[in-house]
Design brief:
The complex is a heterodimer of chains A (195) and B (473). Helices cover 27% and strands 13% of the residues of chain A. Chain A is α+β, with helices and mostly antiparallel strands and 195 residues long. Classes of the chains: A alpha+beta (195), B alpha/beta (473).
Chain lengths: 195, 473
Amino acid sequence: MAASAAVRTSMGLTLRLSRVIPDCSTCPLYRLKSCVNSSTSLQRRGSFDSFRTINRHLQTTIGLCGEEDSSTAEDTEEVVNVVYIDRSGRRIPVKAKVGDNVLYLAHKHGIDLEGACEASLACSTCHVYVSDGHFDKLPEPEETEDDMLDMAPMLQENSRLGCQIVLTPELDGIELTLPKITRNFYVDGHVPKPH
Amino acid sequence: MVVRGKAFSSSTCPKVCVVGGGPAGFYTAQHLIKDVQVDVYERLPVPFGLVRFGVAPDHPEVKNVINTFTQTAKHSRCSFYGNVNVGKDVSVGELLQAYHAVILSYGAEGNRSMGVPGEHLAGVYSAKDFVGWYNGLPSCRELNPDLSCDTAMVLGQGNVALDVARILLSPLDFLKKTDITQPALEALAASRVRRVWIVGRRGPMQVACTIKELREMATLPGTRPEMTPADFEGVRDALKDLPRPRKRLTELMMKTALEPPGEKERERWSGASRVWGFRFFRSPVEVLADSGGKKVAAVRLAVNKLEGSGEAAQAVCTGETEDVPCGLVISSIGYKSLPIDAAVPFDPRRAIVPNSMGRVQQVLGLYCSGWVKTGPTGVIATTMNNSFDTARSLMEDLDSGKLDVSAEKPGSLRIAALLEEKGVNPVVFSDWEKIDRLEVSRGEVCGKPREKLLSVEEMLAVARHLIGHFDLQ
């Protein structure tokens, strides 16, 4: 684990110096699967796109990337206002930044959004409902996200996986609702009360 | 420390224990450690249950949840005690006396049997055992499945059945880089299995698997699909009324089974030496032996028709049968919970601990979560929700006073004394971490995420620091 800490500190410098696609396997963003460009899409695109991606990383603050993270947005143009609505209906407003990942942002603010597979599109525990008006502004889900969403209980038209939502300026005001009712197979037919 | 308006001093902190160190146990603990002390008891020296022993080796991202569980285990209010057999080393009654509450999360270690003649012939295995074998479950170490035949039949069409088919047919290059056990890798390298039928008693619209696993089969290199188009009659018309998950799954199945292959697929299929396919409307009625009488040579399948539609459709026997030759039969029709202790209510028909919202009605202070609560279906996310619900029930009872935590309880101190009397030495989490480090370092040598220890004896020896520490850098 010491190696990844060293990588984290040198990552910024390495990315700036690199002229070619870096070895993603050492990057904590890739390892934790919070890199917005999964390895499959990086392979699909040409190297020039990847270079643009690298530059985008330098401007983004992903919650776990400790060095570049600041908890208050200094540049107001970068602020994205987000409201989480938790399972009890409580509204939690959050001032986020362009490039923030919805799942890790929730964790940073103590919101109870699970991410069992750590943003690797292998579960549906970060399932959220996206507010009208913002849902259509999100890029289309990858097939893999749709596959995982299919397993989420209480699937709705405006369902997405939180780990795949990266904030952009046009998402300002987005509201993300955590699904309330848990789906349980009660063998005796009992239906749980919504809470 | 405040619990919803109540103040607990650290000496009267409610003490709760969880029986079973798998996803249910850890997710339940995760929600309780905010307010109570949680001790997790696990029979094996190693934690994580089916995440370690059930999830397929080529699904490493699904295992990321281990990081969440590790965080829980290392929380100041959580303690892990491995190598403790509840029901044998300590009884549930003793736990109920030592703790304010006990949550049973011990899952489903048994197996639903087919109930047909010939089920116990050589060459017939339960999927639970087969999966346990390639995942290093100590009790399955000696399975030594015979992979020298040409055709394998998997009975059942859920995700476990697809995992088994996929592991049987995956290119070795893929498997070599996973945490599949070395003996399994060697057996699969020598395997002569070239055809796998995945057999279900109902039709394409009733398969229990999910789309991710189906996609993996459809795109598995070196293989091509082979199905019966007639099985899909009427399916296209029914598509539009299906809910999204079932619709997408059925569309993919139809595409795989019926559509002529595109150029890319044609190329892949022309070089494919291995075949797989779903066989629908078939139930096993007998496993037929070879001339020696000891080993499977074929399975007699009854042909069914469907009555009703959708999830509730029933398979009804038509009276017709067919005999399908095969040398390997893997029955993947469900896991099954077993009773742990005579003092615990158990419903043998549904094979669960009877409960309401996770509360075991007949026994105050007793709860359950995970598969032992709801039956053995669902992925990790389902178990997560299930466990959170039980934790919520327990916290409600604590708040309302239904669960009386005013009296201090001895918790692990009492249990440790009982175990010592019996000569049982628990494995604590830092001991597991020694095993973990050794497995990872042994894996590095051969390019795998870990090389699992395969016996309880070896695990205990490493935990006690008797062997293995020289391997660590």
